[in-house]
């Protein structure tokens, strides 16, 4: 990672691995899912690049634990962030693009976004990633 540019360039991945430290290329399922989301929005492209980088980067055991629990651990994690983002995107106070909708539709959209954020925070499965991270370290 030391030779990875400090400046993010969409579409660029981590440095190429040598035979000594080779990480397999993306599997077809993950690569296809990333491709399916291409071009929707620059923010989604950045997320895709981050996922691709995490998938092909040569992680240490310690860094793997950290990444796993940051995606779906306890407290603040990527799952919770996505829930909060959904809540923001479905709120007309923070997303002016919704303000043309009638009042009842606005309320329904906002309620569904809030419900998604709550359910993601409260019920998204986190025990398996946390258990996996604990097993890596032998905790």
Describe the structure.
The chain has about 140 residues and is mostly helical. The chain is built from six helices and no strands. The protein has helices at about 30-35, 40-55, 60-70, 80-90, 105-125, 125-135. The relative contact order is 0.11.
Give a concise summary:
By secondary structure, the chain is mainly alpha-helical.
Binned, the helix content reads 55-70%
Shape: flat
Question: Mean of residue pLDDT?
Answer: 87
Distance between the termini: 27 Å
Poorly predicted tracts of residues: none
Give the DSSP E fraction (strand runs of 2 or more residues): under 5%
Radius of gyration: 18 Å
What is the multimeric organization of the chains shown? single chain
By DSSP, the count of extended strands is 0
Main structural class: mainly alpha
> Count the helices. How many?
6
Query: Main β-sheet, in a few words?
Result: none
Topology (SSEs and partners):
Blueprint: H1 28-36, H2 42-56, H3 61-72, H4 78-89, H5 103-123, H6 127-137
Descriptors for this entry?
139 residues; mainly alpha; flat
